[in-house]
């Protein structure tokens, strides 16, 4: 432990401890004087949220001291040898403390006023600085707060000066080189764990750091506020778009979207998208509410499923499910990407966020969902890895009341790769949980697979699955597979689905369950001669994924030729189980007529700041930039699907052009309109995003 006597290291550690203790005291002040946690919240939830917050505070303290660490070990101009360097360090610490305390003061005021921790939306008050300044001056003791802020900052800076004198100006202690190296390793590990924000349940192949969504341990906004750090939270929200939607464009396309959603005449107006859906006549004839099991098939496109024409028999189990259930021939995800597809499935809103997924936006993480309206159902979400990835945990726990979330650290099986436990282990343990639920208790369960993804791990414990190695790379490349590893990963996913269905058939829940399968996206790797040509030349193969609804005791086999979107799945399932619900977004029950005629699915063909969007039917697609430029119409099943036919069929072109634009603009708006913000002291129509 001789390394601990390093003057630089002791000073830096003392600075980290001082800043961390300061933030702990500020967190305590927030809890005692500002928090709105009610009496119904358990002490365990409070301590769990506070524990998350303390780790955020430690991360910020480490980041604030990082510049000093650089200054400490410069060759000559460093904290030990140079008085000027020490002076600069104290100036930096003083200014950093000043800004830190100011941020907390603004955060406390923001929370008192709006019930939200400080975030980027606070900058809207700068749009009218005169009124905002007057309001603050008349509402708060500004002079006393300012004096307290300056005095506290001066006191803490004086403390830092004392720490510098105590640790940096003392005589240099003798430290062995071996001890210094050992100390460097220890400090690096502690620093890494501090920034990571966790020391247990870490998958070192994919160490997911602590994220703001971890604060939402209960879905309760007031409890989550105890776990957020205002500086880090403000930074997270500062990465969001400053103009998230174009209100003028939303209003322009509202009549079109109201027709698309078949909104009743008395429900139209003031950008209202809510429609109340009663129990449908096509509901299943069951004595008990049917269970719902959703299986997300990671990275599985239609071009790799035998039922869609793929050779080499990669998916015999899914093919049987397609033959025995509802099989959707033209099914599209709105945007490619796992997090974006999960968002679309749950919310009914295409994730048109230009770069990061919408789930990463803490301002819209509490969404209205059909799943949350499954009254009387147990709701379960199973994922083999960490649900904090893409901040999905925040979306799930905030939006689905009473959700039972099973993730990394909750399973008995060991991790096999970056994605956590194997899909087979996930299916087995998930089945055991579902099989233990009493027969009279309906449930909704979402099982998120991950194995069909690089590194395409074939785990050692895979029952009797056999790797197939009799196909050449040339054969596989010519039919949609990069190599044998990817081909066998698809086969293993299909095998695991088959094993899950075998287990389910032996259970009591099988006969009263709707099994819903969908791929979250495809990934273009090689040519696809077995698929219609438009899939490749129009780049639709990434969005075209398998979808089946399987319930042999409840549903007759059926092939759906119309274009169907991922956002339509939950309304369709809700119609089947006889749910009465409010639909506030863009998904529709496919068993209800489509007002636009040929059913249409919306897709984002190219992401980024200038996305390319499209509207797809079973026979046509309009393709255009988000602003309407470079628009074209394509006939899918033709010899030249890439040919622009907008002049030859202007009516179809204009119809699909308008739908694509309307979907894009409305989706951006619904991110915020569909979010539950729980703002206080503001009428419902006066709540700004």
From TrEMBL:
<keyword id="KW-1003">Cell membrane</keyword>
<feature type="transmembrane region" description="Helical">
    <location>
        <begin position="142"/>
        <end position="168"/>
    </location>
</feature>
<dbReference type="InterPro" id="IPR012160">
    <property type="entry name" value="LtaS-like"/>
</dbReference>
<dbReference type="InterPro" id="IPR017850">
    <property type="entry name" value="Alkaline_phosphatase_core_sf"/>
</dbReference>
<dbReference type="InterPro" id="IPR050448">
    <property type="entry name" value="OpgB/LTA_synthase_biosynth"/>
</dbReference>
<feature type="domain" description="Sulfatase N-terminal">
    <location>
        <begin position="290"/>
        <end position="578"/>
    </location>
</feature>
<feature type="transmembrane region" description="Helical">
    <location>
        <begin position="12"/>
        <end position="34"/>
    </location>
</feature>
<keyword id="KW-0472">Membrane</keyword>
<dbReference type="InterPro" id="IPR000917">
    <property type="entry name" value="Sulfatase_N"/>
</dbReference>
<protein>
    <submittedName>
        <fullName>LTA synthase family protein</fullName>
    </submittedName>
</protein>
<dbReference type="Pfam" id="PF00884">
    <property type="entry name" value="Sulfatase"/>
</dbReference>
<feature type="transmembrane region" description="Helical">
    <location>
        <begin position="87"/>
        <end position="106"/>
    </location>
</feature>
<keyword id="KW-0812">Transmembrane</keyword>
<keyword id="KW-1133">Transmembrane helix</keyword>
<feature type="transmembrane region" description="Helical">
    <location>
        <begin position="180"/>
        <end position="197"/>
    </location>
</feature>
<feature type="transmembrane region" description="Helical">
    <location>
        <begin position="54"/>
        <end position="75"/>
    </location>
</feature>
């Amino acid at each position: 432990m001789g390394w601990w006597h390093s003057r630089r290291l002791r000073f830096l550690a003392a600075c980290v401890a001082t800043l961390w203790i300061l933030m702990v005291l500020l967190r305590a002040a927030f809890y005692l004087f500002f928090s709105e946690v009610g009496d119904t919240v358990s002490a365990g939830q409070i301590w769990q949220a506070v524990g998350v917050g303390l780790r955020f505070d430690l991360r910020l303290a480490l980041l604030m001291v990082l510049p000093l660490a650089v200054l400490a070990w410069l060759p000559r101009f460093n904290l030990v040898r140079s008085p000027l360097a020490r002076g600069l360090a104290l100036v930096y610490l003083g200014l950093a403390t000043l800004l830190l305390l100011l941020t907390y003061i603004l955060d406390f005021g923001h929370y008192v006023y709006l019930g939200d921790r400080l975030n980027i939306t606070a900058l809207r008050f700068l749009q009218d600085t005169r009124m905002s300044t007057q309001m603050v001056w008349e509402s708060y003791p500004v002079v006393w707060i300012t004096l307290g802020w300056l005095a506290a900052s001066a006191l803490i800076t004086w403390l830092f000066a004392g720490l510098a004198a105590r640790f940096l100006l003392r005589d240099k202690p003798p430290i062995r080189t071996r001890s210094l190296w050992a100390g460097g390793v220890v400090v690096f590990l502690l620093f890494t764990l501090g920034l990571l924000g966790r020391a247990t349940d870490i998958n070192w192949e994919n160490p997911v750091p602590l994220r703001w969504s971890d604060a939402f341990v209960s879905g309760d906004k007031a409890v989550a506020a105890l776990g957020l750090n205002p500086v880090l939270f403000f930074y997270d929200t500062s990465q969001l778009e400053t103009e998230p939607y174009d209100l003028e464009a939303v209003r322009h396309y509202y009549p079109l979207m109201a027709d698309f959603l078949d909104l009743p005449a008395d429900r139209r107006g003031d950008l209202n998208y809510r429609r109340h859906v009663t129990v449908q006549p096509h509901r299943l004839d069951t004595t008990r509410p049917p269970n719902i099991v959703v299986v997300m098939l990671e990275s599985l496109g239609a071009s790799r499923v035998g039922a869609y024409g793929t050779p080499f028999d990669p998916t015999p189990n899914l093919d049987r499910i397609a033959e025995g259930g509802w099989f959707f021939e033209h099914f599209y995800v709105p945007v490619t990407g796992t997090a974006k597809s999960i968002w679309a499935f749950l919310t009914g809103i295409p994730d048109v966020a230009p770069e990061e997924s919408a789930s990463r936006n803490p301002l819209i993480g509490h969404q209205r969902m059909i799943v949350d309206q499954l009254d009387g159902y147990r709701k379960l979400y199973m994922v083999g890895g960490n649900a904090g990835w893409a901040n999905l945990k925040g979306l799930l726990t905030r939006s689905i009341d009473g959700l039972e979330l099973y993730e990394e650290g909750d399973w008995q099986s060991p991790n096999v790769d970056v994605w956590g436990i194997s899909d087979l282990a996930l299916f087995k343990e998930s089945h055991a949980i579902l099989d233990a639920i009493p027969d009279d208790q309906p449930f909704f369960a979402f099982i998120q697979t991950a194995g069909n993804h690089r590194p395409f791990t074939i785990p050692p414990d895979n029952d009797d699955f056999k790797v197939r190695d009799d196909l050449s790379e040339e054969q596989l490349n010519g039919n949609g597979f990069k190599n044998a590893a990817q081909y066998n990963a698809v086969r293993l996913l299909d095998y695991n689905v088959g094993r899950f269905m075998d287990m389910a058939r032996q259970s009591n829940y099988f006969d009263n369950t709707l099994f819903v399968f969908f791929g979250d996206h495809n990934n273009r790797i090689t040519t696809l001669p077995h698929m219609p040509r438009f899939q490749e030349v129009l780049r639709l193969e990434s969005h075209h994924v398998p979808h089946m609804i399987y319930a042999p005791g409840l549903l007759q086999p059926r092939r759906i030729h119309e274009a169907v979107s991922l956002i339509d799945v939950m309304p369709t399932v809700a119609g089947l189980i006889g749910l009465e619900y409010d639909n506030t977004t863009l998904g529709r029950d496919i068993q209800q007529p489509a007002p636009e005629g040929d059913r249409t699915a919306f897709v984002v063909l190219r992401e980024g700041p200038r996305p390319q969007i499209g509207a797809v039917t079973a026979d046509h697609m309009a393709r255009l930039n988000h602003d309407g430029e470079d628009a074209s119409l394509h006939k899918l099943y033709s010899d030249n699907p890439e040919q622009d036919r907008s002049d030859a069929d202007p009516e179809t072109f204009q119809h699909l052009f308008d739908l694509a634009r309307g979907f894009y603009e409305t989706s951006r708006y619904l991110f915020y309109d569909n979010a539950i913000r729980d703002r206080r002291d503001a009428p419902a129509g006066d709540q700004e995003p």
